[in-house]
């Protein structure tokens, strides 16, 4: 598949890591997606997309158009259609908040159709990007739409969440949350409350996801992997804790995960492949 993406211009870059188009025939239909430090908007212009939560009590979902996803704290499965034409937004963990009129907690670990979040606008957006031929023009249309929906004034507490979140991002989740609250001059409970409103989870949970993301991106399946060194670099100093969290987030032990990675290590990979792993 072809991936064309870019960081949007300010002020959108405060809230969005990248906007992108993904087109073509997928090498693998079914992907196992671990928690990553982002929220998402997907507009699918191809066939239906199916998703399964690793929590088996949650019913599977099928989307034929577009959907929002808040921050996920557990893995899920994603099935591409036979031919992909997808337009996406990778929001920073706190980045969806100024674009939607609801608490981020309502979208945490959930999928929601675009029209359920942006009332009666899904078809209009899809029609705008669906009629555009080039990826460059599609991204221009998407960026224009996002800019029109960005609130003029930040919601209460969002600036603090953004500042603190950026410190978690740049430190890959290794800064103690207590130190962040102290530096911000607020209590840990107050900071947690603001994060739940604008991210959907506590800063401690966000730190865990950043820490894991650093670890998983650092795995090079074409070379010997020193799990102890990788774990310590990412901030895991308890091997048992590292092993449990790795299994929770990927569904595999580190050894199993590496073996699966090596099955696909010679395939050409794009940005969409860092984190997700083929499950078919």
| Shape call | globular
Structural class: alpha+beta
Largest sheet, in brief, is: 6 strands, antiparallel
SS summary, helix count: 10
Low-confidence stretches: none
From the N-terminal CA to the C-terminal CA, the straight-line distance is 17 Å
The total beta strand count reads 11
Radius of gyration: 19 Å
Helix content: 25-40%
User: What number is the mean pLDDT?
Assistant: 90
User: Strand order across the biggest sheet?
Assistant: 1-2-9-4-7-10
Question: Roughly what fraction of the amino acids lie in strands?
Answer: 15-25%
Characterization of this structure:
The protein contains ten helices and eleven strands. Helices cover 37% and strands 19% of the residues. It has 280 residues and is of the alpha+beta class. The protein has helices at 114-117, 122-130, 135-149, 158-170, 177-184, 188-198, 203-217, 227-233, 239-250, 254-263, and strands at 2-6, 16-24, 30-33, 39-44, 49-53, 61-63, 66-69, 76-79, 84-91, 111-113, 277-278. The strands form two sheets. The protein has a six-stranded antiparallel β-sheet. Helix 4 packs parallel to helix 7. It starts with a strand and ends with a strand. The mean pLDDT is 90.
């Amino acid at each position: 598949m072809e991936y064309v993406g870019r960081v949007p211009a300010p002020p959108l870059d405060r809230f969005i890591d990248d906007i992108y188009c993904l087109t073509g025939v997928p090498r693998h239909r079914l992907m196992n997606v671990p928690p990553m430090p982002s929220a998402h908007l997907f507009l699918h212009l191809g066939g239906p997309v199916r998703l399964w939560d690793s929590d088996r009590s949650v019913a599977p979902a099928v989307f034929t158009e577009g959907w929002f996803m808040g921050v996920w704290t557990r893995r899920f499965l994603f099935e591409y259609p036979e031919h992909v034409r997808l337009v996406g937004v990778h929001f920073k963990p706190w980045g969806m908040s100024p674009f939607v009129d609801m608490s981020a907690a309502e979208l945490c670990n959930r999928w929601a159709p675009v029209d359920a979040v942006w009332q009666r606008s899904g078809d209009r957006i899809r029609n705008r990007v669906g009629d555009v031929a080039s990826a460059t023009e599609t991204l221009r249309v998407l960026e224009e739409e996002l800019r029109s929906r960005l609130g003029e004034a930040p919601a209460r507490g969002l600036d603090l969440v953004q500042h603190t979140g950026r410190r978690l991002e740049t430190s890959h989740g290794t800064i103690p949350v207590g130190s962040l609250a102290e530096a911000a001059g607020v209590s840990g409970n107050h900071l947690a409350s603001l994060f739940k409103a604008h991210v959907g989870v506590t800063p401690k949970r966000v730190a865990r996801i950043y820490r894991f993301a650093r670890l998983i991106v650092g795995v090079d399946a074409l070379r010997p992997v020193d799990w102890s060194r990788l774990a310590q670099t990412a901030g895991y100093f308890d091997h048992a804790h590292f092993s449990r969290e790795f299994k929770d987030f990927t569904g595999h032990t580190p050894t199993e995960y590496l073996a699966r990675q090596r099955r696909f290590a010679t395939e050409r990979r794009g940005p969409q492949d860092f984190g997700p792993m083929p499950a078919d």
